[in-house]
Amino acid sequence: MWSPKPVPTMSVTATAVIRLGMSGNRMLATSLGLCIVVPLLILADGAHPAHATEIESADTSATVLEQEQRASRLELQSVADEADLAAKALSALESDIAALRADQQELDSKIAETASRRAELDQKIAAGEQSMTGLSERQDSVRLSLISRRSVLAEILAALQRIGRDPPPALLVTPEDALSSVRSAILLGAVVPEIRAETEALAADLKELASLRQAIAAERLSLASALERNAEEEQRLASLASEKTALQEESSRRLERERKRAEALSVRSNELESVITTLADEIVALKQAAEAARKVEQDRQRQLAEQLERARAFAAVAVPDKNRIMPAYAFSKLTGTLLLPTHGETVRYFGADDGAGHTLAGEVLATQKGATVSAPADGWIAYAGPFRSYGQVVIIDTGENHHVVLAGMEKIKVSAGRFVVAGEPLATMGQTRFAGSAALSLASERPTLYIEIRKDGQPVDPRSWWKDDMSSRKANNDT
User: Which of 20, 33, 308, 458 is the most exposed place for a label (fewest CB within 10 A)?
Assistant: First the structure.
C-alpha cells in the first residue's frame, strides 16, 4: 500500500489512482495485443485458453465421473448386502413355513386322535345309558312284583306280629286251641320259605341295582370329565391350528414380499453394474482426451517457449519496436540503463532531509523553464493530472509491481490508460517551483521535478536505475 509521506511524497489518494490505472491499462493492453504478433510475452504467461478449458473440463468431468463411479460402487455394495440379507430372510422364512407345515400336520393328527377318543367316549356313554335303561326296567319289574304280593306279605307280617305279641299256647295245656295252632303252622310252613326266597332274591336284586347305579354314576362322572377334557383339547388344538394357519399365511405373504424385494435388488444390482461399466468407459475416454489435450498443450507450450527464447535473443540485440504495447524489457533488469526524465541537476537525493524534518522518499531534479519531461521507461500511465500542491503528476506502471512517480510539472501531454515507451514526451515544466517543493531550502528558484520509484508500494533509491553519472547531471537548456 502507498502510505502518506511528507512533502513532496505521494499520498493514499495517488495509490488508489495507481490501482485503477493499472487495471484499466492492462485490460487495454490485452485487447490491443490481439492485433499484434510481436509481444510473445503475453502468450508465454499462461496456457492457451481453449486448450486449458478443454483440459480442465476433461479433468473435471473425469473427476465427477469417478466420484459417481465410487458412489455407484458403494450403492452396489449396499445393494449386495441387502440382497444377502434378503436371501437369508428368504431361507429363514422357508424354514419357518416348513416348520409350520410340520406343526400343522401334527396338529391335524392330534385333532384326529381327539375326534377318535370323542367317538369312543360317545360309545361308552351310549352303552352306559343302555345299561341304565335295562336296570331301570328290572327295577320296575321287581317293584311291580313286590307291589303285587303286598297283600300276602301284609298277612304274613301281620301273622308274624301276632305270633310275636301272642305266642301260640301249649297243646297239652289248652287243647281247644290245637286246631288253630295247626292251621297257623301249616300256613306259615307253606308261605315262609317262598317269602324267604323272594326276599333273598329281591335283596340281591336291590344290592345289584345299587351297585350298578353307583357304577353308572361313577362312569358318568368319568365320561363327563373325559368329555370336558376332550372338549378343551379340541378347543386348544383348534386354536393352535388357527394360529398356525395365520402364521403360515403371514409367512407366505412375507416370503412373497422378500422374493419381490430380492428380484428388485437383483435388477438394481444389474443396473448399477451396467452404470459402473459405462462410467469406467467414459472415465477412460475422458482421461485419454485430457491426456491428448495435455500433450497438445505441452507441445504448444514448448513451441511458445522456443519462440519466446528466440524473441528474447532478438530483443537482446535489436532495437525495441516503437509500436509495442508491452514493456520491451523487465523493469528490474534495467538498472543502470535509464535516462533521466529531463536534463537538470539533482539537488536532493533519496534519504536526504527534505527541509521539513522528514526523510526524502525520492530525489529532486532542478531543470529549466519549459523543459520537456519524458518517460524514463516503457509503461502504462496509471494516473495523469493535478494533485494537491504538487502541480501536475504522472504515475507510470512499469510492470513487476514497479511505479515511477513524476511531480511538479505544469502541462501534461498524456492521459491515464495510455501505454508509453521510453523517451516519449509526457509533460513540460513550468516557470517556478510549485508549493510542493517550497519547504526545500534550494539555492535557486528554478523549476524542480520530483522523481520517485516505488516497488510493491514502497519507495526505493532511484539512483541505481540511472545511466548518467553524477557529473553529467547539470542543468542544460532544453529549449
Answer: 458
